[in-house]
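Hi C.,

You asked whether I'd gotten around to modeling the 247-residue construct. I have! Everything is below, sequence then structure, no commentary in between.
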Amino acid sequence: MTHSSRRILRLSGADAHSFLQGLVTNDVTRIKHGLVYAAMLTPQGKYLADFFLAADGNDILLDVDAAQADMLAQRLGMYKLRADVQITPTDLHLHRGTNTPPADALPDPRHEALGWRAYRDAPQSDDTTDWHALYVTHLIPHSGVELTPDSFILEMGFERLGGVDFRKGCYVGQEVTARMKHKTELRKGLAQVAVSGPAETGTPIMADDKPAGTLLTRSGDSALAYLRFDRAKGEMDAEGATVTRTA
């Protein structure tokens, strides 16, 4: 399995670290200890992109879904103003696996079961991990499937995945995210479900003829779903398939 669906950007310049610190959901200073998982949000607190940050000397490598890379680089450029920051593409390739970590590997900070990531000059060709199965088993949202422009990151489990820091200070979308954390109880969010019958990603889930959510990444008889928790009780229906919340 190759990982050409990721692109690696480089942020360099004297202000690179402080620049990112004021924009993303996690504490950028943690890259001195390993990979940092973070997101960039709209001012209204909705998801724009999620990514990994890694130290490379004084520079920062940003590992992002290829479909989001140009948009993210453009959005970062909008905030740059006079900061001493350069945002450039690289020819690096993502390598990852769940086997014994090589010397240049960095643990995936979202969950230990997700193994390691490394950044190298040549593409990877020897990984046979069933990543979809791991995502479903450990409730890991994926860019473009679970994570969309309508997503709020707390509903998608970012606190559990270590993707947001509530003590770091201001960042874009911080006020809405903090309010969801401290003043409301989440009524919707990512969950694991059992599925019996054919149903694809995007299939609406109904409970007693009322909308209860949407089926997302599926692996065998298990899947991720975005659910309304007050309705996600007992057996639900996804266009003929039976859906039951399991986690």
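If it helps when you're writing up: The chain has two domains: 6-183, 188-245.

Thanks,
B.
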